[in-house]
Amino acid sequence: MNKLGLLIGASLRSQLRWAGEHLYYWLVLGPVVVGFTTFTAARVVDNLSDWQPAPAGIIAAAIVFELALVALSLSRASAELYHLRRPDAYFDALPIASLTHLHAAMAARTGRTMVVAFAALVAHWMAGAGLIEAASWLPLTFFIFVTSLTETFAALNWIHWSHSRQKAVAAMALLMLLAAAACGGLLLALVIRVELFSRSAGQWLPVIAALIGLALYFITLRQHGRWRAADMEYARRLQSSNQLRLINVQRLRRRLSYATAAQLARDLQLTLRAFSSAVYVVAGIVALLLVGLTTALVTGMLPPAASSSGWLDLTWMPQVLLIKSACALMVATLVALVPLLVAYELPMMWLERATAVTGLDLCAAKLWYARAVSLIAPLAAWFVALLTREVPVVYLLPLLAECLWLWWMVSSLTGWLAFEMPARPGLAIIVITTATLAAAALAVIFWPAGLIIHVQTTHSLAERGRHMARLFLLTEGD
Question: How confident is the model at residue 245 (pLDDT cuts 50, 70, 90)?
């Protein structure tokens, strides 16, 4: 118990040390960006005050939120379990039982889940809802309990599946995860809307959550004890591996410098190996956007275009605007991997310095990575337009050109801003996404506006991007 307290205390001191070194981000920049984002979301919700979602929609949204929360936490929960890229790795050399490491990781995960739950309740309150009732605190406690255990269990089985590829174990783990995620989503829906459930359902749901949580705890305890040694070695080897088997550096070198081509190949290889659980989340969001776009086009949800519209007026057809908007959203979603990749490579930056990589190479690599990883978005949006036949044939090629232009503009902006906040990827995603979507919204409505923005900002943003990359390289991200 004393060792567990020491581990938790060391983790808290590390977090406090980080907070002391980054006061500007969480005292100034973070509140400003989050405040503007919340203000905008609150205005949108206020404008939609007459629309009331169905109970089934609220429950489905809560379950999807729970699944997204588990998927987003896979990388961080894995680092907490196996101390990847963390100072806690020194504890592995000390005579500390694996059970103590597991309980310390669970404590850290519970603390982070409490923060997320608090943020969700504050956002719910700022969107116009009232404070949660006193009777909802018990379901909220079980929501934190089940969610934190689910995240730890998912991370443990994610690493083990990557190591062993045991299909039977993975299938059983997936069934447990789905059941736990459904329970967590129902608990969250119970906290937000008590009236959605009957009195008996509201009483039995915490009991079921307690049973699922206990089952997850004991299964995780057994699996961690059996798998930790082998899986830790695999996780460390996977982290340090730098074999570029799927990406041909020589082909990239024909158009890029050798240093830029090598970095781009490495970054693409890391993405294909899912360097973060955010890769799965991003892919899932893009798939949902494609499904939503196809559904909106084929079900006749949009008004038809005016019959007297000229050829140039087709760019403002509801169907064309929707396709371009979906394209911009998909590109913005995919390029969100850029700041996450920069933060992931932060501890290995000494390799770049040792190989004489310049800030220009570093910036160019991330710029081309943003373009490469998001190229699928405009092509997918255009193929949906082609297959659904909701866009006139004469405008298919101009639509492809507009989608490609949106991809080029949004990915370029993200690549130039990649090194603005290397140590805070979450905040960087908010800032970069806000800036790129604002520019993309103008380009969707009137594409010459995007051209003007791109021409006016290209030189200054490119110079700043190279300067920030050079500074990031010299200071190793500190």
Answer: very low
Single-letter amino acid, residue 292: G
CA angle 27, 30, 36 (to 5 degrees): 125
Residues 262 and 149 in one domain: no
Measure the CA angle with vertex 306, ends 301 and 309; round to 5°. 135
**What is d(CA 64, CA 66) in angstroms, rounded to the nearest whole number?**
5
Q: What is the DSSP string of 327-385?
A: HHHHHHHHTTHHHHHHHHTGGGHHHHHHTT--HHHHHHHHHHHHHHHHTHHHHHHHHHH
Q: Are residues 151 and 285 in the same domain?
A: no
Does 282 lie in the same domain as 213? no
Q: Are residues 290 and 233 in the same domain?
A: no
- Assigned token pair, 307: 């019959």
Flag whether pLDDT at 215 surpasses 90: yes
Token pair for 386: 């082609």
Among 214, 240, 266, where does a domain finish?
Answer: 240
CB atoms within 10 A of CB 407: 26
Residues 235 and 376 both lie in one domain:
no
Q: Is 279 found in the same domain as 234?
A: no
Structural domain count, the chain? 2
pTM of the model: 0.60
- The answer to whether 419 and 469 are in contact (CB under 8 A) is yes
- Do 72 and 281 form a contact (C-beta atoms < 8 A)? yes
Q: Is residue 435 scored above 90 in pLDDT?
A: no
Phi-psi region of 392 (alpha: psi -120 to 50; beta: other; left: phi over 0): beta
pLDDT of 16 over the 90 cut: no
Return the closest-CA partner of residue 280 out of 334, 344, 338: 334
Phi, psi of 468, rounded to the nearest 5 degrees? -65, -35
In whole angstroms, what is the distance from residue 459 CA to residue 34 CA? 28
- Window from 48-52, 147-151, 215-219 with minimum mean pLDDT: 48-52
CA distance 122 to 115: 11
pLDDT digits (tens, 9 = 90+) for 392-434: 888 888 889 889 989 998 898 888 888 887 777 877 888 888 8
Q: Is residue 389 part of a domain?
A: yes
Report if residue 408 sits inside a domain: yes
CA angle in degrees (0–180, nearest 5) for 106-133-53: 90
For residue 103, what are its two tokens? 């309980």
Q: How far apart, in whole angstroms, are the C-alpha atoms of residue 347 and residue 326?
A: 35
End-to-end CA, the chain: 35
Q: Read off the tokens for 21.
A: 């070194």
* Containing structural domain, residue 200: 2-24+55-240
